[in-house]
Write a structure and sequence with these properties.
The structure is a homodimer of 226-residue chains. With 226 residues, the first copy, chain A, is of the alpha/beta class. Chain A has a single domain, classed as 3-Layer(aba) Sandwich (Rossmann fold). Helix content of chain A is 39%, strand content 18%. In chain A, helix 1 packs parallel to helix 4. The first copy, chain A, is globular. At the A-B interface, helix 5 of A face helix 5 of B.
Chain lengths: 226, 226
C-alpha cells in the first residue's frame, strides 16, 4: 500500500517536469526569460515588483500573478503599465498553496509572450510547496523578510536551497526587531553554500537597485549561458 | 478523468475527518482540550507560546510542534518545562506544508495525555493548507502579524474563516509599517463576520494576557459546551 502511494507521487512529479519542459520550450520560442519569485505571505514580493518593474531599461517585463483568490496584487501591478495575468489557484479544495507547471501552462495563452522579454511569476505566498515544483523558469528568486526571524533558513531549507538569489527584505525594520543579519546569513550559507543574496527595503527603496539590475541583466545572462 | 480525480480528493478528505474523530475520542478519554495554532512563517506563534504557556494557572499544558524539518521551536519551548513533542513533516517529498489528522495520530503515543489538560498544536507556518485539515481539535487560533500587510484576510480567506480566534501580533511595529488596523479588521469581518480577535505583541508582552486567559479558560468552556 505504502509502495503504491510512493509511486503515485513520483508520477506526479514527473508529469510536472514534463510540462515544465514544454513551458520552457514555449518561452524559448518567444525569447522570453522567466523568473519565479517565491516567499512567505507578506514578505514583500509585490512591493518589490512595484519598485523595480518600471525601471528595467530596455527590458520589456510582464507578470504572472499566482494567488489563492482575488486579484489584489495584479490590480496593484496593473498601474505600472506592464502586462499582468492573474492565475487563481482556488479551483482545488480550499485552494492550492503553490503554482505548478500545469497551472502556468494553462495561463500561457493569456500572456503576451511576443511583447515581453522577461516574465516574472509571483508564486503563492508559502515557504514549502512552491520550491517543489519547477514551472519552466530560468531562475528562482526567494524573498525573505527580517520580521520572519533569523531561524527560517534552517526551518524551511528546501525553499532557501531552491533558488539562485535570496533577497532579505524590510531591512528598514532592523532597528525594531530582534534579527541578527550575520546569524541569518550564516544559516543561509549552511543550507545553501555560496548562494547569492542581497538586502533591501521595498518600503524605503534602499538597496532595490541591485535587484532591478539583477532582473534587467537576466535575459542577457541567459543568452550567454545558452 | 476529471470526475475520477475529484472523487479521490473527496475520499482523502473523508479519511482525514475519520481520523480526526478518532483523535478527538482519544483526547476526550483523557479529558484533554486541544487548540490548533496556525499562521504564516514568522507570524510569532512560538514566541506567543513562550509568553503564555508558563502562566496558565492550574491548567497543565503540553505542546505538539509541527515543522517541516528540525526541532528549533521544540527546543525553545522545552525550556518552559512543559512536555513538548516534535512532529516533522519532511518524510514526504520536500516536506508536507501542513499537519493532518493522521500525522497528529502518529504522534499521540509520544504525548503524555494523562499528564496534561490542554494540548496546543503548533501547525506548520502556512496560510493555505493547514486550514483544510481538522486534526481533532476543539478550537483553532490563527496568528497574523502587522508586518504581513492588511490585505491578507482577502488573499487567504479560508485561513481567516477556519478559526475561532484571530490574533494580530507584532503591534509594537505599527509605528514603523504601513498597516491600518481598522482596514484590516474590516477585511477580517468581511471574510469571517463576528469572529473574535485580539491584538498583542509577543515581543514586548503587550496584550498577551488576553490570549493567556483565553487559553486557560478553554478547557472550562469546552466542558460547558459539551
Amino acid at each position: 500500500m505504502h509502495r503504491v502511494r510512493v509511486r503515485v507521487v513520483e508520477d506526479a512529479l514527473d508529469a510536472n517536469n514534463t510540462i515544465a519542459r514544454a513551458n520552457r520550450d514555449d518561452f524559448d520560442r518567444f525569447g522570453v526569460t522567466v523568473a519565479n519569485l517565491m516567499g512567505a505571505p507578506g514578505a514583500g514580493k509585490t512591493a518589490l515588483l512595484e519598485r523595480v518593474l518600471r525601471e528595467l531599461g530596455g527590458v520589456r517585463a510582464g507578470v504572472l500573478e499566482g494567488d489563492v483568490q482575488g486579484s489584489l496584487d495584479a490590480d496593484r501591478l496593473a498601474s505600472l503599465h506592464v502586462p499582468v495575468t492573474q492565475l487563481q489557484t482556488s479551483v482545488g479544495f480550499g485552494g492550492e498553496c503553490h503554482l505548478d507547471a500545469n497551472m502556468v501552462r494553462s495561463a500561457l495563452p493569456a500572456i503576451p509572450l511576443d511583447e515581453i522579454d522577461l516574465l516574472v511569476i509571483e508564486n503563492v505566498g508559502n515557504l514549502v510547496c512552491p520550491a517543489e515544483f519547477r514551472v519552466g523558469e530560468d531562475a528562482r528568486v526567494m524573498v525573505a523578510s527580517v520580521t520572519e526571524g533569523e531561524d527560517k533558513p534552517l526551518k524551511y531549507p528546501l525553499m532557501f536551497r531552491a533558488c539562485e538569489l535570496v533577497i532579505l527584505n524590510k531591512v528598514d525594520l532592523l532597528p525594531h526587531v530582534d534579527f541578527d543579519v550575520s546569524k541569518w546569513s550564516e544559516r543561509l550559507q549552511t543550507v545553501h553554500p555560496g548562494v547569492a543574496w542581497m538586502s533591501m527595503s521595498a518600503r524605503t527603496g534602499e538597496g532595490v537597485d541591485a535587484f532591478r539590475d539583477w532582473l534587467a541583466a537576466l535575459p542577457e545572462r541567459r543568452l550567454v549561458e545558452a
